[in-house]
Specification:
Largest interface: A-B, 93 and 93 residues
Helix content of chain B: 10-25%
CATH superfamily of the largest domain in chain B: FAD/NAD(P)-binding domain
Oligomer: heterodimer
Strand content of chain B: 25-35%
Largest sheet of chain A: 5 strands, parallel
Strand order of the largest sheet of chain B: 3-2-1-11-22
Number of helices of chain B: 8
Order of helices and strands of chain B: EHEHEEEHEEEEHEEEEHEHEHEEEEEEEH
CATH architecture of the largest domain in chain A: 3-Layer(bba) Sandwich
Helix content of chain A: 25-40%
Strand order of the largest sheet of chain A: 7-6-5-11-22
Radius of gyration of chain B: 23 Å
Number of strands of chain A: 30
Number of strands of chain B: 22
Structural class of chain B: alpha/beta
CATH architecture of the largest domain in chain B: 3-Layer(bba) Sandwich
Chain lengths: 744, 421
C-alpha cells in the first residue's frame, strides 16, 4: 500500500500550555525531515471536530498512515479508531506533560523525540494481512473419557463441533465411575446422588457428533491448531485423525498407597478411599479380611497429601470424599460409627453445608490429629495412634477398618518428572543423558507431540506435575497453543468443579479454532493479525528461536532449518528478540522499526539520555499511571518505547543505542520465576538471560555493563518506579559518566 | 443471520470473563455493571494470592481485549430492571443512571479540582473522601469521571461545568432506559463483604482499629487511602501486632452457614503484606480450619513459616478496646490447649465472609435462592445462567473457570446455528 502520512498534534489536556507546539514541530521537522505541511494541530483532537478533521484528511487527501500525538494509546480508543489506516499513538499527555515539571525547558525536546519516534513507526509499520492457513479442521480431540473429558465433549458438541474422545481404558467414566455415589452438588447439600457421569456416558455414546475411541492412546500429534495430525493407537491398530484443537483431560491416579506403610497400608482391613468405593458398591460395608460388616470405620485424611515427603499439596477432594464415605457407613448400618481424623477439614464454599449436615449425625466423629502410625490390633482390628488431638496429647483409637484418603496425582506428573530429569541430565552432557535414558523407565506419555521442544506441555515450576499454567487470571493458558487442560490433570478438583472447568476448556478450544480460521492470534493478543515472518534466505539455522519460543511454535525441518508454525504463535516476538540475524519481523513491529526509533532520539551533548524499553501490558501502564496521578515526575532524561513483551528485545538495539551515544538502556519487564507475571510466560525471563550476556556487546564497544539494566516492574509499581528510574539515571550521571561515543 | 447478543449482568472478573470469551468467539455481548467502572471486587484488591501479583495486570489485558473487540459493549452505572421471555430469548430493560459526565471527558481532573463538595469514598470503604466529581480510582476503566448526584449540592453555580474545557459535564443528564432483545443471560452479580457489624461480639464499627479484610486490601494498595502504607485507622500508627480473625460471619449458622472459600488465603496474604512492610511485626491468625485447597497449600506453608507468625485454632469470643488505648483485645479459647486467652493487638482484621449481591439486590428473574441469597442453578429458566460467586463462594481462579464454561453454554445455541461472526 502506498502510504500517505498525517501527523496530528493535540493541544488539549495541558499539552498546549506545557509545550510550545510550534517549536516542537520545528524540531521534529529538522530532526526527521518530515514534511511540515503534513503536521496538523488541534485544540482538542478527540473532540468531534478534531476527529472530523482527521476523517476529512482520510477522505479527501487519502491519508492512510496516522501519528496521533495526544494521550496514551490506552485512552480514547473509541475516538481514535480509523480502520484501514496504519495507526500510531504518540503519548504526549501521560508520558510528557502530565509527568514533567510544568515549564521545564526540556519538555519540548522530550515531546519532539516522541513525535519523531512516532513518525518513524508510522513510516515503517505496515497494515497486517491475516495469515490464514488452508484446510483447517474444526474437530476437537479430547484426551480422557472421565468427567472432565465427557463434559468438554458434550459442551463442544452442543455448540455444533465434532469431537473425538480418546480413552485409554476399555470403559468411559474415568475415576468418577469407580464411585458408589456422588457428592451432592446443589443446595441443601444433604443427600448423596447417583453418579452424574453415567448420564454423561449415555449422552456421549448416543451423540452423532462425538466419536469415541476406547482402549486407545495417542501415539503422535503433529501440526498446529487447526491442523493437527493425530495418530491413535487403537485395539485395531493405528488410526489417523485430523483435529483443530485439543482438550487434555487425562485425569489423575490416586497416590500410591504402598508408600504409606506407616499408615497401615498393606495390613488387612486398611484400604484406600478408591478401594472403599468398590466395597461400598458391593452393598453394605464389609471388611475385606473376613467379610464382617464394619462397625467402626476410621478415615485418615491427608494420606500422602500436605506432606513434604509425599505430596506437598492438598488434594482438595479428600475431605469431601471421606465425609461422603462416612455417610455410606452410616447408611449401610445405623449402628456403625465413622470416625474422621483430620489436620483441617477442608470443605470450602457451600460444601461446608454437607460437612455441617454430617457433623449433625451423632454417628460421625471428627477429630483433629496427626496420625503417627497404624498397627495391627486383635481380630483384624487396627490401632491408630494420633498426636496433637483436641483432647490434648496423643491418643490411641481402635477401628475395625481404616480408610486412607489418598491424594490426587495428575496423569501428567510421570511424564513431566521424566522429561525434567532428562533435561537435567542432558544439561550435564551426552553421557549423562544416555545414562538417564538407559536407567529410567519411560512413562506413558499422553500427548506425544512431535514438537521440537518436547512431547508434552512443559512443566511449570511449583506446579507439582499438574498441567497448569500458574496464571490466576487466565486459567486456560498453557505453553502449547490449542491444547487446553481440564479437570484433575490441571488442579485437584471435585467432579462438579471438573464439569465447570471442562466447559471452560472446551470454550477455549473452540475459540482457538475460530481465531486461526480468521488468522488472528489467541490470548493474550486475541485481536492481533500480525505474525512473525522470517526472511528465511538469511537464516543461519542457529536455532535460537526454536529453543526460546515460549510456546514451542517453531519446529525444525530435517536440515535443521526453523519452520514457523504460526497457528501455535502467540505474537510475543521472542523469536524476533532471539534472532542474531534480525530476520524475524511483524508488519508493525520489527527489529529495524524499533532500532530506527531508538536511533532517531536526539542525543544531548551535555546531559544524559536513557532509552527505556517497557512491556506494554505492565510497565507501560505503570508509567502512564505516574502521569495520571500527577503526584510524581518522570525523569526528563528517559525516552520510553513500549514493546509487546521484553522477550522481543533484540541485542542489536543495545548496539543501536550505545553507538549513537545513548548513556543508558533500561528494560522494564514483568517478574519472572515461579510466580512469574509475564503473560508470555517466559518472555521477561528470556530477556533477562539474553541481557545478562550483554556484557560482551558492551565490552566490544568498551562500555560499562551497568549502562544496561533490567528491572522487574509490576503494573502497580507506579509509586516506586519514578524513584527507581531516577536512581538509574543518577548512577549514570554520577558514577559511570556520559557515553564516550556521544558526538561521534 | 443477525443474532441477538448475550447479556452479562455484572462487570466483575466473572462477568468480564464470560463476556470477553463469548465476544472472542464471534458473538455479541453486552455487559451491564452497576458501578461506574468495570472490574468489580478484584479492582479493589491489592494483590492476588498465592502469587502476590497485582489484579490490575490481568484487568489491563482484559480492558485491552474489550477495547480491541467491537462485539463487546458495556454500560456502567446500569441495572437490569426487567426480564421477560420472548421468542426463545429475553427482552430486557436496563436503567442507566446519569453519570453527569459525557464521552467528551478526558480525565483531566479539572472538575474535581473545582468541585467544592465531598463524598465518602466507597471504593476505599469510607476510609477516604473524594470530591463529588471524581474518578473512582487512578486506573479506572472506563477512564471517565463521575459526578455523584447525591453528594453534589448543585448550589456552587456548577463550578465543575465552568472548569471543564471539554464540554464534558452535563448536569441535566437524565436516567436512560434501554430495551434490548438478548439470546441468553449470564448472571455474574458477584458478592459483598458480609456486614460483620451484625456480629456484635466482634466489635466492627464499635471497637477502634477493627477492620475487615477488604479494608485491609485497600490499606495495602498503592492506590488506596494511605497510598499503600498499612496504618491503623484510629491514629495512623504503624501496626506491629496484628490479629486476623477467621470465619467472621462464615461457618456460623447465625450469619453465613457456608465457608467463604477465600478468607483463609486472603488472611495469609494479608499477613504477608504486613510482614513485607514491617518485617519485625507479629501476626496471629485465629482459625477453625485453615483452608488452602490444592496447590495453595504451598502458600500456607510459606506464610506459616515466617518469623513472628502464629496460628491459633479457636473461635474468637469477643473483641474489646483495652482501656485507655486504641488497642483492641481479642478474647479466644485456644482449642488445642483448652485455655482461654486474652491478647492485646494494634489492629484486628476480621475475615468477613462473602455474601451474594443477589441477597440485597436481586435481578428480576424467577429463580430459587438459598436462604443466604445464592442462586440455585437448577432453578434457572432456560437460557439464563449464573456464574462465579452469584451461586457459591469461590476464588478468582474458580470464578474464571466457571465464567469461561458459562460463556460457552450461553453462546452454544448461537454457535451451532452459525450466529457467530
Amino acid at each position: 500500500m502506498e502510504k500517505k502520512y498525517g501527523v496530528y498534534i493535540c493541544k488539549g489536556c495541558g499539552i498546549g500550555e506545557s509545550l510550545n507546539v510550534d517549536k516542537v514541530i520545528d524540531s521534529v521537522v529538522s530532526n526527521t525531515r518530515f514534511a511540515k505541511d503534513k503536521i496538523k494541530t488541534h485544540g482538542v483532537l478527540c473532540s468531534p471536530e478534531g476527529i472530523a478533521m482527521i476523517r476529512e484528511d482520510i477522505k479527501n487527501e487519502g491519508v492512510n498512515a496516522l501519528n496521533i500525538c495526544a494521550c496514551s494509546q490506552r485512552a480514547k480508543y473509541e475516538e481514535f479508531d480509523f480502520p484501514g489506516c496504519v495507526m500510531v499513538r504518540t503519548n504526549l499527555r501521560e508520558m510528557v506533560v502530565w509527568s514533567q515539571e510544568p515549564g521545564n525547558e526540556q519538555t519540548g525536546a522530550i515531546a519532539a523525540d516522541y513525535v519523531g519516534m512516532g513518525i518513524i513507526k508510522m513510516q515503517k509499520a505496515e497494515l497486517p494481512e491475516p495469515g490464514i492457513l488452508e484446510n483447517l479442521n474444526k474437530t476437537i480431540l479430547v484426551i480422557g473419557g472421565g468427567t472432565a473429558g465427557l463434559t468438554a465433549a458434550l459442551e463442544a458438541s452442543a455448540a455444533g463441533y465434532e469431537v473425538a474422545i480418546v480413552e485409554k481404558e476399555a470403559v468411559l467414566g474415568g475415576m468418577a465411575i469407580k464411585n458408589f455415589k456422588a457428592l451432592p452438588s446443589e443446595y441443601p447439600f444433604k443427600e448423596l446422588q447417583a453418579l452424574p457421569v453415567l448420564e454423561k456416558i449415555k449422552k456421549a455414546e448416543s451423540n452423532p457428533k462425538i466419536k469415541i475411541f476406547k482402549s486407545t492412546t495417542v501415539e503422535k500429534i503433529d501440526g498446529q491448531p487447526g491442523l493437527y495430525d493425530v495418530t491413535l493407537k487403537t485395539p485395531a491398530g493405528e488410526e489417523a485423525l485430523k483435529a483443530g484443537a485439543i482438550v487434555l483431560a487425562a485425569g489423575y491416579k490416586p497416590y500410591d498407597a504402598t508408600k504409606l506403610g506407616k499408615l497401615g497400608y498393606g495390613l488387612p482391613n486398611v484400604v484406600t478411599s478408591t478401594e472403599f468405593e468398590e466395597i461400598a458398591k458391593k452393598g453394605g460395608i464389609k471388611r475385606p479380611l473376613d467379610g464382617k460388616p464394619a462397625k467402626k470405620v476410621a478415615f485418615i485424611q491427608c494420606a500422602g497429601s500436605r506432606d513434604p515427603e509425599h505430596l506437598p499439596y492438598c488434594s482438595h477432594t479428600c475431605c469431601m470424599g471421606s465425609l461422603k464415605q462416612a455417610k455410606y457407613v452410616r447408611e449401610a448400618d445405623p449402628e456403625a460409627v465413622a470416625m474422621i481424623l483430620y489436620k483441617d477439614i477442608r470443605t470450602p464454599g457451600q460444601s461446608e453445608l454437607f460437612y455441617m449436615n454430617m457433623q449433625n449425625d451423632p454417628g460421625v466423629m471428627l477429630t483433629k490429629g496427626e496420625v503417627k502410625q497404624v498397627t495391627q490390633g486383635v481380630g483384624g482390628n487396627l490401632m491408630i495412634e494420633a498426636e496433637n488431638t483436641l483432647f490434648g496429647g496423643s491418643v490411641k483409637i481402635e477401628a475395625d477398618m481404616v480408610v486412607l484418603a489418598t491424594g490426587i496425582v495428575p496423569a501428567t506428573a510421570g511424564p513431566q518428572a521424566y522429561l525434567d530429569g532428562l533435561a537435567k541430565a542432558a544439561g550435564k552432557g551426552d553421557a549423562e543423558k544416555a545414562k538417564f535414558i538407559e536407567e529410567t523407565p519411560k512413562p506413558q506419555f499422553i500427548l506425544n507431540l512431535g514438537y521440537r521442544q518436547g512431547p508434552e506441555i512443559p512443566s511449570m515450576e511449583g506446579a507439582f506435575g499438574f498441567a497448569d499454567s500458574n496464571f490466576l487470571c487466565f486459567q486456560y493458558e498453557t505453553r502449547r497453543t490449542g491444547i487446553y487442560a481440564a479437570g484433575c490433570v490441571r488442579q485437584p478438583m471435585t467432579e462438579a468443579e471438573a464439569e465447570a472447568d471442562a466447559a471452560g476448556a472446551a470454550m477455549k478450544a473452540i475459540q482457538c479454532m475460530e481465531h486461526v480460521a480468521k488468522g488472528i492470534a489467541v490470548h493474550p493478543r486475541a485481536w492481533d493479525q500480525t505474525y512473525p515472518d522470517p526472511l528465511m534466505a538469511r537464516c543461519t539455522s542457529c536455532k535460537r528461536c526454536t529453543e526460546e519460543c515460549p510456546f514451542g511454535a517453531i519446529d525444525e525441518d530435517a536440515k535443521g532449518t526453523p519452520f514457523y508454525k504460526i497457528n501455535r504463535c502467540r505474537r510475543c516476538g521472542t523469536c524476533m528478540g532471539a534472532c542474531p540475524e534480525r530476520i524475524v519481523s511483524f508488519k508493525d513491529f520489527n527489529v529495524d522499526l524499533i532500532g530506527s526509533m531508538i536511533k532517531s532520539v536526539d542525543i544531548p551533548e551535555d546531559g544524559i539520555r536513557v532509552i527505556v524499553l517497557a512491556c506494554e501490558n505492565d510497565a507501560y501502564p505503570a508509567l502512564d499511571t505516574v502521569g495520571i496521578r500527577r503526584q510524581q515526575k518522570l525523569n526528563p532524561a528517559i525516552r520510553v518505547i513500549p514493546v509487546r513483551c521484553l522477550g522481543s528485545t533484540n541485542l542489536v538495539w543495545v548496539a543501536d543505542a550505545f553507538s549513537r551515544g545513548v548513556d543508558g538502556l533500561l528494560l522494564l519487564g514483568c517478574k519472572f520465576g515461579e510466580d512469574y507475571q509475564c503473560h508470555f510466560v517466559k518472555g521477561s525471563e528470556l530477556a533477562n538471560y539474553r541481557f545478562s550476556k550483554v556484557q560482551e556487546t558492551l565490552n566490544r564497544l568498551q562500555l560499562e555493563a551497568e549502562r544496561c539494566q533490567m528491572m522487574e516492574v509490576g503494573i502497580d509499581d507506579y509509586n516506586k518506579l519514578p524513584e527507581k528510574i531516577n536512581q538509574f539515571v543518577k548512577k549514570i550521571e554520577d558514577e559511570i559518566g556520559p557515553n564516550p561515543f556521544k558526538g561521534f | 443471520m443477525a443474532q441477538d447478543p448475550i447479556l452479562v449482568i455484572g462487570g466483575g472478573i466473572s462477568g468480564l470473563t464470560a463476556a470477553i470469551e463469548a465476544a472472542e468467539c464471534g458473538c455479541e455481548a453486552v455487559v451491564v455493571e452497576k458501578n461506574a467502572y468495570l472490574g468489580g471486587r478484584v479492582a479493589q484488591l491489592n494483590k492476588y494470592f498465592p502469587k502476590l501479583c497485582p489484579p490490575l495486570c490481568g484487568l489491563e489485558i482484559n480492558y485491552r481485549r474489550i477495547k480491541e473487540n467491537p462485539r463487546l459493549t458495556f454500560h456502567t452505572q446500569a441495572e437490569v430492571t426487567s426480564i421477560t421471555a420472548s421468542d426463545g430469548g429475553y427482552n430486557v430493560t436496563i436503567q442507566v443512571a446519569p453519570r453527569f459526565v459525557n464521552d467528551k471527558c478526558v480525565a483531566c481532573d479539572a472538575c474535581a479540582q473545582a468541585c467544592p463538595s465531598e463524598r465518602s469514598d466507597d471504593f476505599n470503604f469510607g476510609m477516604s473522601r473524594t470530591k463529588a466529581a471524581y474518578l473512582p480510582f487512578d486506573q479506572a476503566f472506563p477512564q471517565k469521571y463521575v459526578i455523584d448526584g447525591a453528594s453534589c449540592k448543585a448550589d456552587c453555580g456548577r463550578k465543575c461545568q465552568e472548569a471543564c474545557k471539554y464540554g464534558a459535564i452535563d448536569m441535566d443528564m437524565k436516567p436512560e432506559t434501554l430495551n434490548l432483545k438478548v439470546s441468553a443471560i449470564v448472571m455474574a452479580t458477584g458478592w459483598n463483604p458480609y456486614d460483620i457489624t451484625r456480629a456484635d461480639n466482634l466489635g466492627m464499627g464499635k471497637v477502634k482499629n477493627v477492620i475487615n479484610n477488604m479494608m485491609m486490601e485497600r490499606l495495602a494498595a498503592a492506590n488506596g487511602p494511605t497510598s499503600g502504607k498499612i496504618l491503623r485507622p484510629s491514629d495512623g500508627k504503624e501496626p506491629k501486632k496484628v490479629a486476623f480473625v477467621q470465619c467472621a460471619g462464615s461457618r456460623d449458622e447465625n450469619h453465613l452457614p457456608y465457608c467463604s472459600y477465600i478468607c483463609c488465603l486472603a488472611s495469609l496474604k494479608h499477613i504477608s503484606y504486613v510482614k513485607e512492610q514491617y518485617p519485625e511485626a507479629q501476626a496471629t491468625m485465629f482459625y477453625i480450619d485453615v483452608r488452602t485447597p490444592g496447590r495453595y497449600e504451598k502458600f500456607y506453608w510459606k506464610v506459616r513459616d515466617m518469623e513472628g507468625v502464629t496460628l491459633t485454632k479457636g473461635k474468637v469470643a469477643k473483641i474489646y478496646n483495652a482501656q485507655g488505648t486504641d488497642d483492641p483485645v481479642v478474647v479466644i479459647e485456644d482449642v488445642l490447649s483448652g485455655k482461654k486467652v486474652e491478647e492485646q493487638f494494634d489492629m484486628v482484621v476480621l475475615a468477613s465472609g462473602m455474601e451474594a449481591s443477589q441477597r440485597t439486590r436481586p435481578v428480576p428473574v424467577s429463580v430459587s435462592y438459598t436462604p443466604e441469597g445464592m442462586i440455585i442453578p437448577s432453578s434457572l429458566p432456560p437460557g439464563i445462567y449464573a456464574s462465579g460467586t452469584a451461586k457459591s463462594p469461590v476464588d478468582v481462579a474458580k470464578s474464571m473457570q466457571d465464567a469461561t464454561g458459562i460463556a460457552l453454554k450461553s453462546i452454544g445455541k448461537l454457535l451451532s446455528s452459525g450466529g457467530a461472526n
